[in-house]
């Protein structure tokens, strides 16, 4: 992120969506924001975990420029090509090309270093439907009972992208994906991460498994794995842990991928829904017991 040492702190106007999770940011033009304002956005993102900005005027170039001011951008996706040759960082989520996200997930957890965060821009919206919800993994962890917290603190889980993207990599990309962390992706090797992730900036613990990519808990039986994951998924997605956003033209959402999961409603029939997403380079997840060793 651009240094702000020469700029005084900026104050954002936030409309909180819950006591500690989610907020709408008003009065800020992301395209012309100062370094100090974007530093405040970055701090608010860690604190509130998901932020919404109405009435923005960003195109592909503007979205990428914004991303680079907030962090280091990844390619669009480990497997899926960018929206076009000029914008390889943008992942187009297009319902006309089977671009749906109607399962709870955290972006790209099937890689050793999942993205730090995501910036999503509404491009084409249905007349109604297509809302997106986010779940707060930290709030969900805090509200677990102590015995369950002590259990899951010790566990690791496998995250596997083959179910969702293995066919795409093999059939549509000919077995050659994008360059991710300096290496061309030719196969999706499952990644092991702690079930509970310690946030690198705040030290808070949060649930870091998701139905989209987590295949199983390591070192327990299949039945135990299913039971533990089902418990965590049901708890993570309780209504009091969730905020929901109804999209409008010009909307931009940002979220901290290290502390949230999200779900996009697929309730708009044959209407088209197109969203453009960029992701910020992240680090290797660390749990209460430290990093997972291969």
Automatic annotation (TrEMBL):
Top-level taxon in the UniProt lineage: Bacteria
Protein name stated in the entry: TauD/TfdA dioxygenase family protein
InterPro entries hit by this protein: AtsK-like, TauD-like_sf, TauD/TfdA-like
Pfam families in alphabetical order: TauD (PF02668)
Keywords, sorted A to Z: Dioxygenase, Iron, Metal-binding, Oxidoreductase
Domain TauD/TfdA-like, residue spans: 15-279
UniProt record similarity statement: Belongs to the TfdA dioxygenase family.
Molecular function GO labels: dioxygenase activity
